[in-house]
Specification:
The complex is a heterodimer of chains A (115) and B (112). Chain A is mainly β and 115 residues long. Chain A contains no helices and eleven strands. In chain A, strand 7 and strand 8 (73-78) form a beta hairpin. Chain B has 112 residues and is mostly beta strands. Chain B has strands spanning 4-7, 10-14, 19-25, 30-38, 45-50, 56-59, 62-66, 70-75, 84-94, 97-102, 106-111. Chain B is globular. The model of chain B has no long low-confidence stretch (mean pLDDT 93). The chains are: A mainly beta (115), B mainly beta (112). Chain A binds chain B through residues 4, 40-45, 90, 92, 97-109, and chain B through 4, 31-32, 34, 36, 41-46, 49, 51, 87, 89, 91, 97-98, 100, 102-105.
């Protein structure tokens, strides 16, 4: 089992460029999440998905879009990158969250720098 | 005011010196409290889930406890490999919607 994997591990973008971060999980989890982690801020939820074909906004969704076309994949898109989006991005998955209380399993992260 | 507060922000211990980390929360309608360990450059790794006051969980040198408004992560006789940032997260319910909030973490350094 690979668990949760993220692609790419590192990326540098110029302001205004676009990119997509890919998250994949092999645990058959229904729920998937995208977080960003900034120094002194803690993990903040960007978007999440409760199943294939569904997405919802989290705490800091502006400037990001997501898609969940397959159960095992969750994509995070930045249409026009801004320096404020420089961060470490983590994907996570769980069996269930917002109806019960199950732990989340995290990927290794993507370090994104926007210049 | 932060809904989930972890203290201290950083803690330095000598190897073998036991201590506790604190996670306090102000939310109501707790559904679960999670502890994670995060090593530099890696994603958080799940440690424990606590659901109700009085509950305790143990794993090797770590023991997590829960009261009505806070949780403690006790570290007994720590080793250098216990050095990491420890995160807590609170799963709670507000007006019919479910929320999950992470604390900012406690960075633990264990000196040989």
């Amino acid at each position: 089992n690979a668990g949760v994997t993220q692609t790419p591990k590192f990326r540098v973008l110029k302001t205004g460029q676009s990119m997509t971060l890919l998250c994949a999980q092999d645990m058959n989890h229904e729920y998937m999440y995208w977080y960003r982690q900034d120094p002194g801020m803690g993990l903040r939820l960007i978007h999440y998905s409760v199943g294939e074909g569904t997405t919802a906004k989290g705490e800091v969704p502006d400037g990001y879009n997501v898609s969940r076309l397959k159960k095992q994949n969750f994509l995070l898109g930045l249409e026009s990158a801004a320096p404020s989006q420089t961060s470490v991005y983590f994907c996570a998955s769980s069996y269930r969250s917002f109806g019960g209380s199950y732990e989340q399993y995290f990927g290794p992260g993507t370090r994104l720098t926007v210049t | 005011e932060d809904q989930v507060t972890q203290s201290p922000e950083a803690l330095r211990l000598q190897e073998g010196e036991s201590s506790s980390l604190n996670c306090s929360y102000t939310v109501s309608g707790l559904r679960g409290l999670f502890w994670y360990r995060q090593d530099p450059g890696k994603g958080p790794e799940f440690l424990f889930t606590l659901y109700s006051a009085g509950e305790e969980k143990e794993k090797e040198r770590l023991k997590a406890t829960l009261t009505k408004k806070e949780s403690f992560l006790h570290i007994t006789a720590p080793k250098p490999e216990d050095s990491a940032t420890y995160l807590c997260a609170v799963h709670w319910r507000e007006a019919g919607s479910y929320q999950l909030t992470f604390g900012k973490g406690t960075k633990l350094s264990v000196i040989p």
